[in-house]
Amino acid sequence: MMVTAALSVATIALICQFTLALPAETQAVDASVDFFPVANGGGSMLDKSGGLGEPLNVIISAKSSPTVLTKSGLTLFAQAIGFSTECLGLHIGDPQTANLGDGNGDVNEMGVWRADFGDIGLGTCLESLEGGNHFRAWTQNGSSADSGAIFLAVSKEEDLSQHHTIIPDGYNIGRDELVAAAVGTHKHPLLPLSFTTTSASLSGLLAAGTQGVNHNISQDGIVKLLTVTMALSI
């Protein structure tokens, strides 16, 4: 049974009210910028994973709706475009870290979101078994570069029998599939919320190729910038 049946109209209203009342400090400090280039502060567009790294190939702009730039808001956006939190809230393996050049140094991912196969309650359990698209996220919020932008490492992975290694060309494919799912306007499957997303391609932030990249999988060096606007959808 889908989890939608378990949520009453009153519960949905309360969740929505809470979401829209998130504190003002989630607003980007400098709303005139999409993000600060991480190299300026000694950061890297590769996270750290087993001695190598995975490309930070999608950025959610600081010009997005403030709620989207929080972990709970990111989850709502993810659920609107076919992703959700990990199966039963469980995660196997050590967290990956990233340095966004904001003065915080290397910090752990805030979470992992996986393709939900149409069921935001249990669908990510299927992704854990069969493989599919997923992303990790970090917020650029240190004192030296506090944009509030969220950096994503997106990739498409093999199934459990292949130990969740990345599929051939999985960094480019994962990024492009997430962007294709996000662009346009999409409604949350449970809540009266919609998310309208635009995309732009950025070059020069991430070196193309395999140097330093986990699994020795080449990627094209393109970073997608998403600007996400959340609205009530009654």
Plain-language structure description:
With 234 residues, the chain is α+β, with helices and mostly antiparallel strands. The protein has one domain. The protein is built from four helices and ten strands, in the order H-E-H-E-E-E-E-H-E-E-H-E-E-E. The strands form two sheets. An eight-stranded mixed sheet has the order 2-5-6-7-1-10-9-8, sandwiched between helices. A two-stranded antiparallel ribbon has the order 3-4. It is globular and about 45 Å long. The chain starts with 8 loop residues before the first helix and ends with a strand. The N terminus is likely disordered.
Set out the fold topology.
Elements: H1 9-20, E1 58-60, H2 71-80, E2 83-85, E3 97-98, E4 107-108, E5 111-115, H3 123-130, E6 132-139, E7 150-157, H4 170-182, E8 184-187, E9 193-202, E10 223-232
Parallel strand pairs: 1-10
Antiparallel strand pairs: 1-7, 2-5, 3-4, 5-6, 6-7, 8-9, 9-10
Order of helices and strands: HEHEEEEHEEHEEE
Q: What profile does the largest beta sheet have? A: 8 strands, mixed
The rounded distance between the terminal residues' Cα atoms is 25 Å
Total domains, how many? 1
Please report the number of helical segments: 4
Uncertain spans, ≥5 residues at pLDDT below 50?
1-14, 21-29
Strand content: 15-25%
Give me the Rg, rounded: 17 Å
* Major beta sheet, strand line-up: 2-5-6-7-1-10-9-8
Beta strands, count: 10
Shape: globular
Alpha-beta classification:
alpha+beta
